[in-house]
Amino acid sequence: MAAARVKKLQEALTCSICLDYFKDPAILKCGHNFCRECITKCSAESQACPECREPFQGGELQPNRQLRDVAEITKEIGLHKEKEPGMERVCEEHGEALQIFCQEEESPICLVCQLSWEHKDHAVVPLEEAAKGYKDQIQKHLKIFRQQREEILAFKSNGVKESQELLKQTDKEKQKTVAEFKQLHQFLEEQERLLLAPLEEINKLIVQKRDEHVAELSAEISSLGELISEMEEKCRESASEFLQDIRGTVNRCKKEKFDNPGFFSLEFKQIIWESSQRNPFLKSVIKQFRDTLSPGRHWDKANVTLDPNTAHSQLILSEDLKSVRRGDSRQKLPEKPERFDPYACVLGCERFTSGRRCWEVEVEVGDEQCWAVGVARESATRKGDISLSSDGGIWAVCLLKGQYQALTASKTPLSLSSPPRRIRVCLDCVGGRVTFVDAHTEVLIFTFPPASFSGERIRPWLWLGKGSQLRLCS
């Protein structure tokens, strides 16, 4: 009982801002007391009582000398707020030693508490046994934190190295571009400005992204360091100290695993790669340069429709031949050599051999969705075992079991910041490139390496999994 009264006295003499005994206390009109220095600092940000939020003016602070004297006397007689290290804690209610741990309340209690109605039916264990169990939990978290810190440190180091390599590449491409532009005249001088601008911009963006990610990773490392230090310090405490607010300690350990962000998106590398592909063409004729290399080159929008003669028998096409869905069973359709089977594919009616064409496809998102969007050679295999890849004459991106992929020879996973709902397919028959862009955000999804179409007709191509639906945009 005496310990409880002492605690109440200490609380009455404690400033709610600094959580220490009052120093030069001042009283507000609302009746609350604070250290003068504490309330002065708080008033610089908000002139409202920290306790009741009643507004006050700085000139309203009145000294509370009586409270100051009581606080000083309390300190002089040795009623210290902080407990000596190593001393066993006692029950504030009964003054008895805390010898057991209530598993229901997750707090240490004394033997008298155990007999009370509050804890009568609660499961209890010895204090040391409880401390060991919780320490084991903390140690497991500490192991994870240390491993995560090492992983982030390595990731940070690799990211910095990658940025340096990318910066070297941009500098190299810049030098190549400048060297080629010196041989050309008025038109090429304008092209030089247009081509160098993206490299200069990406150079700045790389440095900016590097600094942002390094700062983010450093902050996470610092946060983990502080958490590790805190938990290590906590584990060195005595059992009774350690189990104080153990629930809060465990909750702090349930830190969400750091999701390593990508240092540099594919878009950065794509811009650098595109620049490196332009330089060899700078010695070509002006027309070819304008048609092939200009970053502002024109794309002709194609009005694509679906070819029912190529559609798998499970695919149901709309009357306007703009949308397609996969049914549950096969339709009775005439057998044709151009019809896909057994893969649920369909081609567009349009056939492209020259120019730069683009069209857009509305797709569905979700873990259950399966589809692929792209282009295919006219000669691509329609029957039997089809190679759904660029090696098989198909250039496409797909959503399969919740994962976005490019249908390269060994399938390339795609890391997209947000799932696209409309995909723009860009076909460059001159350069032999197929590019996919998120039509809403204008973010690059993927570009296939240049291919040789050899004058062959290239057609829009779709594949649908069970329950999927796709629509060509007008």
Automatic annotation (TrEMBL):
Function, as annotated: Neurotoxin that produces dose-dependent hypolocomotion and hyperalgesia in mice. May directly act on the central nervous system, as it is 6500-fold more potent when administered intracerebroventricularly than intraperitoneal.
Question: Which Gene3D superfamilies does the annotation name?
Answer: 2.60.120.920, Classic Zinc Finger, Zinc/RING finger domain, C3HC4 (zinc finger)
SUPFAM superfamilies for this protein: B-box zinc-binding domain, Concanavalin A-like lectins/glucanases, RING/U-box
User: Where do the RING-type domain residues begin and end?
Assistant: 15-53
The record ties this protein, via Pfam families, to:
PRY, SPRY, zf-B_box, zf-RING_UBOX
CDD domains named in the record: Bbox2_TRIM7-like, SPRY_PRY_TRIM7_like
Q: Residues in domain B box-type?
A: 86-127
This entry's Gene Ontology molecular function terms read:
zinc ion binding
Q: In its UniProt entry, what is this protein called?
A: Zinc finger protein RFP-like
Keyword tags: Metal-binding, Zinc, Zinc-finger
What is the similarity comment for this entry?
Answer: Belongs to the ohanin/vespryn family.
